[in-house]
Amino acid sequence: MLGDSPERTRVKRLRRRNRESGATLVEFALVMPILLLLFIGIMEFGMSFYDFLTVEQGAREGVRTGAFVGTAADADCQIITSIVAFLPNGFLDRIDRIEIYEATANGDQIASRTNTWLYTGGDPDPCANPLLNWTVVEQWPSVTRQTAAGPQPLDIIGIRIRMTHNWITGLPPFTGSYVIDESTILRMEPEVFG
Predict the structure, then answer these.
(1) H or E segment and range at residue 64
(2) I need a surface site. Which of 130, 133, 166, 173 has the fewest CB within 10 A?
(3) Dihedrals phi, psi of 152, to nearest 5 degrees
(4) pTM for this prediction
(5) Distance between CA 97 and CA 161 in Å, rounded?
(6) 80 vs 138: CA distance, rounded Å
(7) What are the pLDDT digits (tens) for 30-76?
(8) In Å, how far are 37, 45, 96, 165 from 92, measured between CA atoms?
(9) Is 60 exceeded by the pLDDT of residue 193?
(10) Which of 56, 58, 59 is nearest to 186 (CA)?
């Protein structure tokens, strides 16, 4: 018997192909959980980073507005409006609170000079009727802010936004939630009267 019959050769090829496809299936079964975990991790960290950047940029928008509007009677309303206008749709519902505060020269928040805004739902426009859709605790009225150049240094305004980020999948290690707490400070713009 010098060679195999064509039928026998075909059977050997089929067996080899079946063994190889079985090995491929086992390899896929071993690699798939790792790829799935990698995909979920990228998605979770991406959404977390998006929330962090949105909160950080919202605080920056608010502090820029606050430094510019100065002692206007509706300064806090304008600050909150600028933050709300920046946030994507539905994002405001996830924010725990927004604080407008006076900061010390080294950037620390003065707790006794902090205005806290809590969104309770409904129309997010704080200027329309702030007491209807917002809970406001005011300890630093805008008319008392130092914005005139003189012997007193200009006030430093700060905006702090706190938001609880819930992990989307809830699969380990992405279970529970954590708090995003971002604050930004800026010196008030001097008002010039002539």
Answers:
(1) helix 6-69
(2) 173
(3) -80, 140
(4) 0.83
(5) 6
(6) 13
(7) 999 999 999 999 999 999 999 999 999 999 999 999 999 999 999 99
(8) 30, 20, 9, 12
(9) no
(10) 59
What b/e readout covers 149-178, taking b as 16+ CB neighbours within 10 angstroms? eeeeebbbbbbbbebebebeeeeeebeeee
In the block, which residue shows the tokens 């809590």?
Answer: 118
Local structure of 136: helix, strand or coil: strand
Radius of gyration of the chain (CA): 29
Structure tokens at 164: 């609880």
60 vs 38: CA distance, rounded Å? 33
Q: Give the orientation angle of helix 75-86 with respect to helix 6-69, to 10 degrees.
A: 170
Q: What's the CA angle centered on 91, arms 86 and 95, to 5 degrees?
A: 100
Report how far residue 120's alpha carbon sits from residue 92's, in angstroms, rounded to the nearest whole number.
10
Tell me which DSSP letter residue 35 carries. Answer: H
Q: State the Cα–Cα distance between residues 128 and 117, nearest whole angstrom.
A: 15
Q: Which amino acid is at 78?
A: Q
d(CA 49, CA 184): 18
Structure tokens at 15: 């067996």
Reduce the secondary structure of 81-92 to three states and give it as a string.
HHHHHHCCCCCH
Residue 142 corresponds to which tokens in the numbers above?
């805008």
